[in-house]
Fold:
Amino acid sequence: MKEAEHQENAITASDLRKTFADIVAVDSISFSVKIGEIFGLLGPNGAGKTTTARMLTGVMRPDGGAAAIFGHDIVSDPIRAKQRCGVVPETANAYTDLSAWQNLMLMGELYGVPKHYAEERANTLLSALGLLERKDQLVQGFSKGMKQRLILAMALLHEPDLIFLDEPTSGLDVQSNHLITGMLRELHESGTTIFLTTHNMEEANRLCNRVAIMRKGKIAAIDSPERLKMAIERLHTIEVSFDPAGTDDNLASLQGIESARREGDKWMITTEDVDSTIRAICAFGAEHQLKIEVLRTLAPTLDEVFLRVTEGGTV
Amino acid sequence: MSPEHIIEQAKRAFAITKKDIRIYYAKGPVVIFGLFMPLFLFLAFAAGNRGLSMPFLISGLLAMTVFFTATAVSPVIQPWEAQARTLERLIACPITMRTLIAGDMFASVLFGIGIAVVPIGIGVILGIVPLHPFLLTAGIILASICFSALGLLLSTPATNVPSNIMMLSSLLKFPLIFISGVFIPVEQLPFAGQALAICSPLTYFTDIARYCIMGTNTFSLAVNFAALAVFSIVFTVLAIRLHARTVSRRI
Structure:
């Protein structure tokens, strides 16, 4: 891997491969995650998301290929690579026989954080995640949402530059979900790179700058959520309505419009080129002194992209 | 200091030790196998005493207690961690497998050394004071290291069920008690028993304990200490390598 790539990428994976007996869990995938980006790895169960995350976090050794975290190879230089990461594994638990505070202090010691600073950070994180009042209670009495918030706090104690989250909000209550996604947004704003695996399309759509969709160990699609949605259909639909209505019959003749049909007081327009068509509609409105009341693109949802890709389609 | 520096890794190993002590030492199987089991075995042999002296029995109890306690904690830590789903989080931390093993081992060593006070105390109450306390202390420390490493070696099979490992370790530990001179002096064992005794690390610690408490020994002290040191190194190196190979299969 080139040095220049390392300088701008938080994660670089090339030809990463993992097999279990004769099953190929991850099949020579390559991708990179830029510094400061929120990157989502999506895919159905068994697609290879968790195995990919485990190889990137140094929990599992790849059978082939290479992965680097901020330029540090995860196999040959694992300590420096792991030192800059925080990890929220899918099935992980905090130590239930320890208190929330003891769990955080353990993480501080394992990441070499000075004690006074670890204490300061622990107080800040517990407060932000609504756990400060429960800090001295054993984790065994915590709800699933509280445990997940604590695990996130444990992953953030050493202020990592990159955080891996494997299904962070799966099965959580609304309050925990809200707190965790809010914390992720704050981290993104402060420049932390986030690598997220999730089944939750809405979460990926709202949070991620780019997503990769895995299918049978391979990356089937990788792009920003909006571009993936746009790419799934050749023709896109635009909904528009003007005021006054009924004076816009020439709309269908605009260049680039494949079809236009009236639905009540609205036009449903199909086009290959969304950008040019919207510009043409705006110009049309201005030329005919029509006020645009509604103008929106009806792109497929990320759910539809996901289903299309994971069922074997292409984007 | 860089995170891979030996002092930094040693600090992180000590954090693992503290965690192990807080979590695992109060677990039932550890207390039963580490303290009660050797005590009941001692009482059974003392009750059926075939003319063996009390110093002989006390030195045997000491050897057995250190052996059982040091091998009580270390084999089950990783299966417990895997079962409780804390192992993946631990492996994702910037620590080497050597650090992880050292942390678990040190907890076990401390447990072995600490519990050794109990049989020595019983001996003192019965009027049996060690003749060579410093040598005995050195022997207990080295034996605790050796037995802890053996315990970690026993936990390398990639299972998440602690009872499976407890069963495996019991299969090895109980026969060792009978071929290591704990209750039957090595000299009185048949030839095959003596040959097996040489292969058991417990034989050498029992001999050190007997020398320090009674003043008699089968092997020279140098042989006893060297044998324990060699066993310690071999067990530790094997444990590190095998755990590195099997750890991802536990997750």
Remarks:
- Residues 230 and 299 of chain A are 6 Å apart (CA to CA).
- Chain A has a mean pLDDT of 87.
- Chain A is about 35% helix and 30% strand.
- Residues 174-189 of chain A form the longest helix (16 residues).
